[in-house]
Amino acid sequence: MKPETNAVNKENGVDDSHICKLETNGDLSGHRVRRLEEEFAEAITAMTFKKVQLDISSAHNIDSPGIALCVGLYKECKIKKMEFEIIVNDELRRIFTLVNLDKILPIKES
């Protein structure tokens, strides 16, 4: 997985060159999470970013390893002094709210 970076976001004129955009295609559950953990760790250590944006809005299911992946990535970013945000859909927002992660993780709706 290669992080997506853009020099300037043409929509809002913001410099996105230091944003690592990680995107999932599908659910965050089971064995898939282990593979994503490796890919995400590689992506955020490959370059220096100011911000990591995790887009999980295409997922419809997330289990405890998937939630742990999100929290772990957040902690890793905090250690490296990088900003972090998760982009979710309505369904995932309800799950994150139910387990009170909306109070800890910076969540943005897609």
Keywords for this entry:
110 residues, alpha/beta, Transcription Regulator spoIIAA, 4 strands, globular
Largest sheet: 4 strands, parallel
Indicate the structural class.
alpha/beta
The order of strands across the largest sheet is 1-2-3-4
CATH superfamily: STAS domain
Low-confidence stretches: 1-14
Count the strands?
Answer: 4
Helix segment tally: 3
Helix content, binned percent: 25-40%
For the record, the CATH class is Alpha Beta
Identify the CATH architecture: 2-Layer Sandwich
Number of domains: 1
Note the overall shape: globular
Mean pLDDT: 83
Order of helices and strands: EHEHEHE
**What is the name of the CATH topology?**
Transcription Regulator spoIIAA
Description:
This protein is an alpha/beta fold. The chain has a single domain, classed as STAS domain (Transcription Regulator spoIIAA). The chain contains 3 helices and 4 strands; from the N terminus they run E-H-E-H-E-H-E. It has helices at 31-46, 64-79, 90-98; strands spanning 19-23, 51-55, 83-88, 107-109. The chain has a 4-stranded parallel beta sheet. Helix 1 (31-46) runs parallel beside helix 2. The protein is globular and about 30 Å long. Residues 1-14 have low confidence and may be disordered.
